[in-house]
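Q: For a teaching session next week I want to show students how multiple molecules come together into a single three-dimensional assembly. I've collected the sequence lines for a complex. Could you give me the predicted structure tokens for the whole thing so I can convert them for display?
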Amino acid sequence: VKPVYLALLHHPVRDRAGEIITTAVTNLDVHDIARSARAYDLAGYFLVTPIEAQAQLIERILEHWRSGAGARRVPERAEALRLCRTAPSLGVVVRQVEREAGEAPKVLVTSARAVSEASPLEPAQARALFDRAPAILVFGTGHGLAPEVLAGADGALAPIRRHASYNHLSVRAAVAITLDRLFGDGVGDGVVAGRV
Amino acid sequence: VKPVYLALLHHPVRDRAGEIITTAVTNLDVHDIARSARAYDLAGYFLVTPIEAQAQLIERILEHWRSGAGARRVPERAEALRLCRTAPSLGVVVRQVEREAGEAPKVLVTSARAVSEASPLEPAQARALFDRAPAILVFGTGHGLAPEVLAGADGALAPIRRHASYNHLSVRAAVAITLDRLFGDGVGDGVVAGRV
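A: Of course. Below is the structure for the complete assembly, covering every listed component.
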């Protein structure tokens, strides 16, 4: 298990018009992203929402699958969902990771478009960073992370489809691809032909 | 646009116990996978189910987002869903692709575990194949494609997490990662550090 965490923000994120909103939690964002986080050996997955009723909804989903009837019926789902926690803000996530990892984490943001404030990190650069410090990979729901989150980060990962005409991947797909680029089988051990 | 198509099979697939079943269509399998297929410039995405009522459900979803109120509100979703079609079986998909592409397609299957009947194709080998013939990438719902589908294919892609202890990615995540490994920005043009 690497000291790398995921955070999925439901606030502050942008809507289509660029306004700052709070999105509703999507059930499959809990499940799919937990399974991806588990498959790539992350240390934890925070679902971030300032709305208490939404956090309670997530906790009920987690309870069902982690210790209720769901856990007996689908044990591999329970294993993935054990990584999940809720948090009211990214700041709380940062402090929690610092407590667990014993060191202040680097906050790396993601965006479908280039974040102008900084040169994006390529996968190899991000991996070098993970060797030196704990890290939080931050993804946004809606139409992406608010400018204040992008501006306040320690770095930004390169957009996934920066040279493509269509870059409207779901956040579930974006998380999966990002984790595979950073931690996939082909990385480092040279087992996959055509990848380093 | 490459002559590479996706097929998501709801039958014949396995359940947890290995029995052959027909799964129900999941709304997000329509949306998420269409967006991934569009982002990576595929030629089409077939949702395969032998159940007519399920095919009609999919067609209603497609109608809403492609030409109804949804298309005006979220045009990039309409653009992705224009790739979608339903088909009653993989055989029908093969014949349809042959008509469109003017040549019999290669059928490449995917699996979370190694398919014993053949050596898996690495991404570079699959890309070499796409240069020579149209192709269909086949993904299974439930607990994966039935043995008869695996055995009848022209080739199998290597499992995504073959060296990991946990390989229960969602099919939505598996499709996204597979397309990125085959067609991602880092492939071929050398723009992503650390990948070929």
